[in-house]
Amino acid sequence: MQTRIFQVSPFKYAIVFDAAILGADQIRGEFANSIQPAALSIELSNDIPTNFLREIATIADHQIASGFAGLPFNRDDLRTVLYGKFPSLPSLVRVEDVESPSITLCFERELLDDEKRSVAAFFEQWEAGWPIEFAVASSTGETAAPDSPFGRDMLRIKPVRTRTALPRFVQEDEAYWFDHVDALFEGSLNPNRVIDVERLGTTCYVDASSFPQIDLRQTILCYDTVLMSPPLIGDGEESFWRRQSLSRDDFVELAGADRVRFVLRQPEERTDVAFLHAVYQANPSAIIGRRKASALLAADLVQTADEYRFNGVADHVPELARQMAQELHLSELEIIQLLLWPSSARRSCLLPLMTSGLMSIGAFGQGRLLGDQIQRATGQDLRLEAFVASDDVHIAHAFNATLIPPLEEKSGIIMLRRLVGDRLNFYRACNTRIFAAWATNERRREEKIRLLPSMPIFDFPPHAKLRDLISLTSYQSTRRKGRALLSRLSQLPFEERESEIERLSKDLYELGVRREKRAMLLDTADDVKEVAGALIDLTLFPVRSVWNLVNKIVAVGRRIPALDNFIDDLERDTLPQRFRNTDLDFLSKIERVAVLREPVRPASD
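^ thats the sequence. predicted structure below, dont judge the formating
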């Protein structure tokens, strides 16, 4: 959907879009209840208003963090951003109620001219044409109220200057986010530049902030680096150390040896701050703060969205969804949401991550989407379970780590985690880098062959029908692979060709067996209960494995000629690495009507 936004009056706006794509009446209720900020007057329409003050420029994906334009800040958001971007500002005492088209910011002291210009320039980026006024607190000693880390939203990331007695790394963490947020969402700061995950070796992620966990000594034996969210202060913390039979000093030593790194999800005040400080002293890299972890997750989402292969055929996704919806009896919107989730997550994650860090994944992650889909498909409400199960998977995925879930977990949650992980792996793997290199190589191979000798390489069973042969080779991509195989085999000496045909026949058989096993994978769980009992009965897309989704996309997408090459490349990527070559792909398509024949030694001269 392409939208246009018009400012009809100083405090009233209209969002306009094409009725052929979506009628305004169809979305008006959901928009009012789930999207529209409560105090903002917005009208949805399929018609451009006859009178308006101005048309507001749309925001491109790579400009989302530039000036935070378009984000609906409340007063807490505004204070967080001002303190983060301009740490030398005096304390903001209050933000005056808006009774005219302006915002009045009242500080403890008069702002310097440079400070006024910087703050005014920021507000001009955030909301162009909205005047900013500055005021100074009264001489009666009015000061900014201290901001408790356990206020009305204890999970919110509070500005460092409003919190006391925190280690230095918290301030560094905040500075990192605001110094790099533009680059993160522009896509110019890839995940490895945020945290060099590859240098960590094989990693696992354990969340020790809630439920009992595996003996972490076992993870030290198996993984190069253990990523761990530390336990929270209180009784649960002491029981954690007792169960682990490890002391805080042991973990400080492990951190110093770079075998453990702590990923902070909760406010630092809810953990043992002295312990975190000791870890930081032993190894500054061993503390991954809330802002730094959010930056890694954002960079991973942006890179996934930028490289997502469906971006190149986005115009065809509605048609693909329409055809799939008819076969699967699902809504087109549900299918589109799943296929284009990377772009959706990229656009919606900035404010939640800036506000609450890793505790905000539910606002844009896969949990809510999966829970809604399960409820629509089965009538069972597993939204809370899906919501809880998805966060850890998202975090582990961003770190390329193996998730080790809690020991005591409701039966079947592991299946929800696998479904989320399956989807995230699909989005990351379905990228443009591998495809481009492979396609270029294949074109070069084919272009070098201009003449194919008339050498019989295939046997055709007598019962094979011509219409089957025509149907199975109706796509240009299939024929291209057949030519490549024929040209390669025809150039081999007899002995090598005989050996190659034998190898291909064996691999083709194994490929068929593997496909059958993979298709049966979700049908073999006999003893799952509770959540698993609900999941195991699911047969509808898109709740089951993304593997089924990909197969359905391939089957339906083949009907759209414009998607032939795209679908062909996508289908190839579903094969195991060993079988990922054009020869086997071609042979698997035509084996109903033709098989490789045993080579016949040519007559000697």
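The chain has a mean pLDDT of 80.
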